[in-house]
């Protein structure tokens, strides 16, 4: 009966939302990560014709493994599926089985841990760009469990990138300004000679892992043969604040920002220290994962299969609720989504916003972001405060839209950390 309702859930959600990237459609799927193999917390990015692989990892909260498969879809610069056919962007089959899985060991919550590296030594991606990875049930391609986005870059251009306090285009004390110069093509990049023109380029900037405030930069000027993207309002981002953080790796002795842990009815619960509004406080620098998460367990050997799942309780004490928006816990722990899953609920009895998430043991960092009614971009200013000193990560993606091409090529990408 449980499996029947699970299949029904997958069918209903996949019909409505199959094209949304970085989304989970089954309540049984947890702790999805996608990194370069061997480089934890790295961007899921491959170099075209390179030798590196990406490693997909996730859990299913059930006792028996299922036959799962995955496929790739090529997308444009805005993450819409384009007209390219699978044989045009990938040299292998249209989909593949997920072959590696393990049962959890000595955990209260049973689960199956799956992991899969791709592409194999016999396959390769044929073109650059944005790709969507879709995991689904074997024999039921419309029963989608989750999606994840990744990138294949040509690394065909040299880009210099910098961050500073905002100039006249932003708030000097609160905002950070990203500038980029796009140099001449690298020697091996003969296919873009003569195409580095502003009208053919799409330049996007992402702050940390957020997708609600990605900016598209506009060309500003030429300098010594380089294309410059500077001094425009879209170059400025609110600085935000150092990410909040807790350590759930030890369930016997509560660690950083965990007040207490208890087990009841076969489940484990953790209460975090109450959060506070930091918008009026001075900036305090500290090391941060900038929204990342890392599975870890203090007293076991293999966190992938020995770390347990815990109901983690968040709370934000306030005098009164917001009437013009919602409060969200944002980071890898909620897939950076501003949706119902990440939204805190107002508890009138305790004068606090609360949220409970089922998380695997490990390290977690996050922010509290306010989402105004009828808007899609969240605000850090309301609860975190904005500071130019914050050590945010910024990633620039440079796409080439050649009039003769049927797809958006990713010709370069680069990440830097502000104030480092």
Description:
There is one protein chain. With 420 residues, this protein is mainly beta. The chain contains 3 helices and 27 strands. It has helices at residues 2-17, 86-89, 303-306, and strands at residues 29-36, 45-47, 54-60, 68-75, 95-97, 100-103, 112-118, 129-137, 140-153, 157-165, 175-185, 201-207, 215-217, 221-223, 226-229, 236-238, 244-247, 258-264, 267-272, 293-295, 309-317, 325-330, 345-347, 352-360, 362-372, 393-400, 409-417. The protein has a 5-stranded mixed β-sheet with strand order 2-9-8-4-5. Strand 12 (201-207) and strand 13 form a beta hairpin. The longest helix is centred in the first third of the chain and has 16 residues, at 2-17. The N and C termini lie far apart (54 Å). Mean pLDDT is 92; it is low at 1-18.
Low-confidence stretches: 1-18
Kindly, what is the distance between the CA atoms of the first and last residues, rounded to a whole number of angstroms?
54 Å
What portion of the residues fall into strands of 2 or more residues?
Answer: 35-45%
Structure summary, number of beta strands: 27
Q: Indicate the radius of gyration in whole angstroms.
A: 22 Å
Structural class: mainly beta
Helix content: under 10%
How would you state the average pLDDT, rounded? Answer: 92
| Biggest sheet statistics | 5 strands, mixed
| Topology as a string of helices (H) and strands (E) | HEEEEHEEEEEEEEEEEEEEEEHEEEEEEE
Shape verdict: globular
Q: Number of helix segments?
A: 3
- Arrangement of strands in the largest sheet: 2-9-8-4-5
């Amino acid at each position: 009966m449980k499996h029947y309702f699970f299949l029904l859930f997958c069918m209903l959600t996949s019909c409505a939302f199959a094209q949304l990237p970085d989304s989970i459609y089954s309540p049984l799927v947890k702790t999805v990560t996608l990194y370069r193999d061997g480089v934890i917390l790295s961007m899921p990015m491959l170099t075209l014709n390179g030798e590196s692989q990406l490693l997909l990892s996730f859990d299913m909260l059930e006792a028996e493994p299922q036959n799962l498969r995955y496929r790739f879809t090529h997308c444009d610069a805005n993450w819409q599926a384009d007209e390219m056919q699978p044989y045009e962007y990938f040299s292998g089959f249209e989909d593949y089985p997920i072959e590696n899985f393990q049962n959890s060991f000595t955990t209260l919550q049973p689960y199956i841990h799956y992991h899969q590296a791709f592409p194999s030594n016999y396959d390769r991606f044929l073109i650059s760009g944005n790709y969507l990875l879709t995991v689904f049930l074997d024999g039921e391609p419309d029963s989608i469990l989750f999606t994840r986005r990744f990138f294949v870059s040509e690394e065909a251009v040299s880009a210099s990138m910098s961050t500073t306090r905002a100039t006249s285009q932003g708030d000097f004390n609160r905002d950070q300004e990203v500038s980029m110069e796009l140099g001449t093509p690298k020697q091996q990049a003969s296919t873009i000679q003569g195409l580095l023109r502003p009208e053919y380029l799409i330049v996007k900037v992402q702050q940390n892992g957020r997708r609600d405030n990605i900016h598209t930069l506009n060309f500003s000027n030429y300098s010594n043969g380089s294309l410059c993207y500077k001094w425009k309002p879209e170059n400025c981002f609110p600085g935000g604040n150092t990410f909040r953080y807790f350590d759930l790796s030890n369930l016997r002795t509560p660690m950083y920002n965990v007040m207490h842990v208890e087990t009841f009815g076969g489940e484990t619960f953790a209460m975090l220290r109450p959060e506070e509004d930091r918008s009026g406080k001075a900036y305090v620098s500290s090391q941060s994962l900038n929204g990342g998460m890392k599975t870890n367990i203090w007293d076991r050997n293999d966190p992938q299969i020995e770390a347990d799942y815990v109901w983690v309780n968040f709370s934000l004490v306030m005098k009164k609720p917001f009437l013009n928006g919602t409060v969200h816990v944002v980071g890898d722990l909620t897939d950076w989504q501003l949706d119902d899953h990440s939204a805190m609920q107002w508890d009138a009895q305790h004068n606090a916003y609360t949220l409970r998430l089922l998380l695997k043991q490990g390290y977690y960092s996050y922010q509290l972001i306010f989402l105004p009614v009828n808007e899609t971009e969240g605000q850090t200013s309301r609860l975190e405060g904005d500071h130019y000193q914050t050590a945010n990560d910024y990633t620039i993606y440079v796409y080439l839209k050649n009039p003769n091409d049927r797809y958006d090529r990713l010709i370069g990408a680069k990440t830097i950390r502000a104030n480092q």
